[in-house]
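Try it yourself: sequence plus adenosine monophosphate, in.
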Amino acid sequence: MKPKLVRTLAALRRETAKWRAEGLRYAVVPTMGAIHSGHTHLVAEGLKRADRTIATIFVNPKQFAAHEDLDKYPRDEEGDVRKLGEAGCHMIYLPNPDEIYPQGFCTTVTLGGPAKAGLEDKFRPQFFDGVTTVVAKLFTQTGADYAMFGEKDYQQLKVVTRMAKDLDLPIEVVGIPTVREDDGLAKSSRNVYLSKQERQQALAIHSAISHAAERIRAGLDLQSAMTSATRTLLALGFKVDYVTVRNAETLVLPQHRDEPLRILAAAWLGKTRLIDNVGV
Ligand code: AMP
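Structure, out:
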């Protein structure tokens, strides 16, 4: 299928109004492009719940700090359109930056709660304000019934879910399990930055946190499991931002080991920052 491409809010609203007039329900899949099977899986999951799916592609400058990879973030519009079309996506919204941040734009959506859990927010302080501001806009611009987000970005999923609830946005945020390479590495647009050797090392992040989850299930205390996973990654040459276990819903530090738990990690291999998480 060839998805319909729209680049302006006016065109987006025209097209979605037609769907509404036909009584169709639709899902939105917000992305920054460089589409891979993690993204197309979200499209497929959207199609299980709704009649139509819109993917959005917007590399959001507000969620990058000055020293981060905004300029070199991988861009491939033609390939993205083809992959999303093959996944059955009906429409792709590729907004011109003016459609998102028109002249005079001065509103920021800021959350407490999961956005201030001391995880990504501690290392990328600008990140969640950028995410929540653009996602609030994409929700209201598309008017979708469902929004599909990956568990790959677990804190982001919790932040966006909280925002939609707090602002009574009429959309259901759906979290979808992480799509992985055969060796366990989470699919990510940023994996293209890894050298051949780093790509080999990278699988250790998933194996270290999965092993920690197993050891916790087997009775090891939470702190020892985290210390041991951190040591493993350091020994393999990672620079570790965090390896931590949190309450899977609130992301606060657990009081008891029988709470629902999630292990979250972020670590650098050379110039590439990888994040991953697993349930316990
Ligand atoms: P991004 O384009 O990287 O900002 O990601 C767009 C959406 O795709 C977010 O909801 C991500 O969590 C999701 N996503 C990215 N990688 C994966 C993956 N490997 N598995 C599932 N979802 C993913």
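One thing you can check immediately is this: The pocket of adenosine monophosphate is lined by residues 31-32, 38-39, 41-42, 149-150, 152-153, 176, 178-179, 186-189 (CB under 6 Å).
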